[in-house]
Amino acid sequence: MDDRSRAFLESLLTTPSPSGYEADGQRVWVDHVRDFADEVHTDAYGNTVAVHEGTNDAPSIAFSGHADEIGFIVRDILDDGYLRLGMIGGSDRTVSKGQHVTVHAADGPVQGVIGQTAIHLRENGDEEYEDIAEQFVDIGATDEDEAADLVEVGDPVTFSTELFELHGTRLSARGMDNRVGTWSAAEGLRRAVEADVDATVYAVSTVQEEVGVQGAKMIGYELEPDAAIAIDVTHATDNPDVPSKRRGPVSLGDGPVIGRGSANHPNVVSVAREAAKSADIDVQLQAAGIRTGTDADAFYTSRGGIPSLNIGIPNRYMHTPVEVIDTEDLDAVAALLGSIAERAGEVDSFAVDI
Questions:
Q1: If you placed Cys at 141, which of 147, 159, 222, 346 could pair as Cys (CB 3.0 to 4.6 Å)?
Q2: Residue 124 lies in a domain
């Protein structure tokens, strides 16, 4: 990963972007892709699209990651100045208490903590995890009026975590899900531009995936590409606390993960596997018998059906403040997308032959 791509990744990961409040993160993405895209545009909800214009008779393909991250929202301001929380996406109640958080208020960030009763004051055995709705944020205010001068109901809240380098090529941060996907979509487009591929390639950064793949529904309808690839994190199951019944073949650092089954169109799967083979890229396979849980689930049912694929980036500890990825996987995903873009221009039709 060169210095510019690494700086882009770090900017994405350090810019809060909870579902419904993605604008700041989308600006980072747009500022990067406009340097090499033929066109960049956004829609009413903030989905962003960067385009490489191919030849008129070649197919089009979309590379998409979602810009939003899970988080919280200020649900109520209490008489004593504490804040009650609601969930944005699949926030994990088992990791939230005792954490530093930032309330993203209109006048600037407000720091707080999610309260956790000290171990000395808890009853033995009283260790159940409270629902998010029962947890509270302490911003230091002494009453409701003081708190209301700082924040409002509806302000988004994220963990106040940093990006940390672990040993070797591994990084830890909140929001890997799915800033690494939007990074990959942009880098895949850049490689398509550098190769001047025949296919028209759209790089897409969608909004509100964590609350129901909503942005992908909008953008799939608008673009109607011949094929779509959703790049998202997937569970690396190589850490020791994963139950044996949930262990799969996905390991951190072993390369991109190509989905099979469900939304994953067999012809797009074949193009991806052939592209990986021709570029000498190691890939992993993952089964999706019912759904992928990604934007691919929205793309493949858009309009009359868009042949779609989910490519996964191995990620440990998903939906926690300490998600871990390997940058070698990211480089491999970007290379794979570039190879797919080159092969896509040779495809007459992605449709199933009956």
A1: 147
A2: yes
